[in-house]
């Protein structure tokens, strides 16, 4: 369901791997009985217009059913925990010109990437609260 990388790709405005996330949320939020029925009915094929019209924009994420929101929220918290430093520490480093310039070019780029990823994850937390 998740693909080779085992991760979902989130952008500022929408989920870029929306099909994978939609199917994953749908399946993980099903009861065992619903899952059996879904599988028996070849539910893995496109689910008609329901999924065709379900772009996972930020607005759509905020309207997800409560179990899906909870699952996403908990997943985002786990992902944020996997980062070493918190977002505030990295923001402080970005704002401290002297400390920032002591970093190698590669460390600076990594800092920008991590900080951007955390901002997107925090945005997602707000959307699914």
Structural features:
Rubisco_LSMT_subst-bd_sf, 129 residues, single chain, 8 helices, set domain protein methyltransferase, domain 2
Give a summary of the structure in a few sentences:
The protein is mainly alpha-helical and 129 residues long. Helix content is 67%, strand content 0%. InterPro entries: Rubisco_LSMT_subst-bd, Rubisco_LSMT_subst-bd_sf.
Question: What can you tell me about this protein's structure?
Answer:
The chain is mainly alpha-helical and 129 residues long. It has one domain: Alpha-Beta Complex (set domain protein methyltransferase, domain 2). It is built from eight helices and no strands. It has helices spanning 18-28, 32-40, 48-52, 58-62, 66-82, 87-95, 97-102, 105-128. The longest helix is centred in the C-terminal third of the chain and has 24 residues, at 105-128. The mean pLDDT is 85.
Secondary-structure blueprint:
Elements: H1 18-28, H2 32-40, H3 48-52, H4 58-62, H5 66-82, H6 87-95, H7 97-102, H8 105-128
Helix content: 55-70%
Major sheet details: none
Which CATH-level-2 architecture? Alpha-Beta Complex
What is the averaged pLDDT score?
85
Name of the CATH class: Alpha Beta
Radius of gyration: 18 Å
